[in-house]
């Protein structure tokens, strides 16, 4: 029990650290317009919302894990309880595009874990901006990404994930 409490407190500390970074940016320039914590209108990506003066809004889901680790596409698609993390992002995306244009919003998974270096799909993330790169969308069947998208001639990525990746250009891994 004490270990669980410690992990929860470390998770809150991690969330607060990122939140304070954005709160302080309100005072240092005119890029950030508003910061919300635990935004009740942000669906499942509700830990932190950063509204910017250019009209864009970043919605953060912040995950802290005790000990080192990696995310794989399988981890993101696997439901531990109820919906998977990607399904939650998909549901949230569909809620948010009723209020904002697609170009205004980014859904950001922020974690002390990184993507697994051997995951052939997640290696297609652009290192400059965290978005899925053109390499992912345009990869041929013989490339690492292409091989991972199909196994034995069948599409390995569920339809939900395919739709998500096609629509969520502003999807971001940090």
Helix and strand string, N-terminal first? HEEEEHHEEHHEEHE
What is the number of helices?
6
Strand tally, please?
9
Helix content: 25-40%
Distance between the termini: 30 Å
Strand order of the largest sheet: 1-2-3-5-9
What is the 3D shape?
A: globular
Q: List the uncertain runs.
A: 156-172
| Rg result | 17 Å
Average pLDDT for all residues: 78
Strand content: 15-25%
Q: How many structural domains in the coordinates?
A: 1
Structural class: alpha/beta
Please describe the biggest sheet, giving its number of strands, its sense, and whether it closes into a barrel. Answer: 5 strands, mixed
Summed up:
By secondary structure, the protein is of the alpha/beta class. 37% of the residues lie in helices and 21% in strands.
Can you put this structure into words, describing what you see?
It is a single chain. This protein is α/β, with parallel strands linked by helices. The chain has one domain. The protein contains six helices and nine strands. The chain has helices at 2-28, 73-77, 85-96, 134-138, 144-149, 159-167, and strands at 32-37, 48-52, 57-63, 70-71, 105-111, 114-115, 150-151, 154-155, 171-173. A hairpin with a 2-residue loop joins strand 7 (150-151) and strand 8. The longest helix has 27 residues, at 2-28. It is globular. It starts with a helix and ends with a strand.
């Amino acid at each position: 029990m004490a270990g669980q409490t410690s992990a929860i407190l470390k998770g809150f500390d991690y969330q607060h650290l990122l939140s304070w970074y954005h709160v302080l940016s309100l005072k240092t320039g005119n890029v950030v317009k508003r910061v919300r914590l635990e935004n009740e209108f942000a669906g499942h990506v509700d830990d932190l919302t950063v509204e910017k003066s250019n009209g864009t809004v970043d919605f953060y889901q912040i995950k802290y894990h005790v000990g080192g680790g990696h995310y794989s596409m399988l981890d993101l698609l696997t439901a531990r309880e109820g919906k998977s993390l990607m399904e939650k992002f998909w549901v949230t995306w569909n809620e948010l595009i009723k209020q904002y244009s697609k170009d205004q919003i980014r859904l950001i998974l922020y974690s002390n874990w990184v993507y697994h270096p051997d995951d052939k799909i997640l290696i297609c993330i652009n290192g400059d901006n965290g978005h899925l790169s053109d390499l992912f969308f345009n990869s041929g069947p013989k490339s690492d990404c292409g091989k991972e998208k199909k196994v034995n001639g069948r599409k390995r990525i569920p339809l939900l994930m395919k739709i998500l990746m096609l629509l969520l250009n502003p999807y971001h891994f940090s």
